[in-house]
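[Meeting: bench + compute handoff]

Bench side (C.D.) handed over the final construct sequence. Compute side (W.E.) agreed to return the predicted structure before the next meeting so the bench team could plan truncations. Sequence as handed over:
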Amino acid sequence: MRLQFNEVRARAAEFAREWQDAHYEKGETQSFYNDFFEVFGLKRRRVSVFEERVKLLDNKSGYIDLFWPGTLLVEQKSAGRSLEAAYKQAMDYCDGLKSEQFPRYILLSDFQTFELYDLETREHTAFALADLPAHAEKFGFIMGVEKRSFKDQDPVNIVAAELLGKLHDSLKANGYDGHDLEQFLVRLLFCLFADDTGIFQRGIFEDLIRDFTREDGSNVGSFINEAFEVLNTPEDGRQANISAELNQLPYVNGELFAERLPTPYFTAAMRDELIVLCEFHWEKISPAIFGSLFQSVMDGAERRKAGAHYTTEKNIMKVIGPLFLDDLRAEFAHLKGLKREREKRLRAFHDKLAGLNFLDPACGCGNFLVIAYRELRQLELDVLLAIRDSVQRDDKTKDFYAGSLSRVDVDQFAGIELFEFPARIAETAMWMMDHIMNNALSQAFGQVYARIPLTKSPVIHHGEHWRWTGLTCWRQMSATMCWAIRHLAALSCVMRNEHIRSRR
């Protein structure tokens, strides 16, 4: 189970006490960082290596003190040495790395001080070893808790789709096809994402594949299906003699793993493709567009017939802004500026957000739903921060646990899609975005918050529109149909405006 930040801070305090006299780079660096990673509940060797060789621009070689490809580069110095020089050295190392290895974070230390650089947000944090507990949240990325920003054209989404597409093609060529293949890959996508973002104990799924499947691939499919069964079973309902390693997997629920699938048979080459997938940094993909990109592994003729494509985030925002988001933001800005009954009115507004429902009647892989959900969760986070500020200002309570108050959830969103595969991708993408926003909540409040096991699901129906006649579904549609009609009208206006601009 992932640690809570209060336990991480306690571990950080003990780490600071134990290493308060450390000073020698060559003799103590490795033990120092082995213990440092344990503060966050992760074994250092699972994700990083010491003394990684890198070729510099002047054709010389250097050695990175600690390297976690794609995530963290550490340059360590003895106590009292210049960290300014260490930063220059770290950036020189970055110049020699492949693009997919380029880290998001650079950490500099002389044992007694830390400097952490976030190369994505350009945030720089410096503090003494003794103050590590107060800055523990800055290292939440070690646990999979970090803020993410996504770009429509980020190549990482294309690379990820291509890697998953290779395994798709291999399984299909072997005769594992149709619904079984699609469901297997959607489950696998969830596990890969969960392994890198803290839903699972970080890296456990990759370790299981590496350590408990044979190199010839003969037991890979059966082992993965066994893992799926474990993920679908509550901890207190599992067999007593289940392996300790598999038992580390959490109960997920959400019916994602409920159906028992036929066993896919792997070869050694297919196992290698799976390990490459496990090594990829899945926390970097955008749930909003990855599904549509992954759908591109389908047969081209079928894809054109089905209309598989994705709308960029920029154009999605053009629709959902005037459709509902601009009005909600304006209302929040007004409430935030009130002098009287501010907290009461903000809480009522929060009730309003939790009561909204949304329908995309042709949702595809869920691009519009995922972005709309992200924006609604971000607005809720802003509201919770404003409520917390009001509570603390009035000194009504010393404790404000945002996780217990977060009420916007995926079951407020519904979609209709003709085919099952994109419908299941949309459902999974919504859960992925939910976890990303839970991480944002965790970062903002310094309290780890996760919705595992999944208790609520987006309502994604696959089939023809006119056949969606279940009473519950029609109730949801009646509550949201006005949003759907305005959605289509707004989209038409956006497309018309874009066409006029292009003609100019």
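W.E. noted at the follow-up: The first helix runs from residue 5 to 18. C.D. will use this when planning the next construct.
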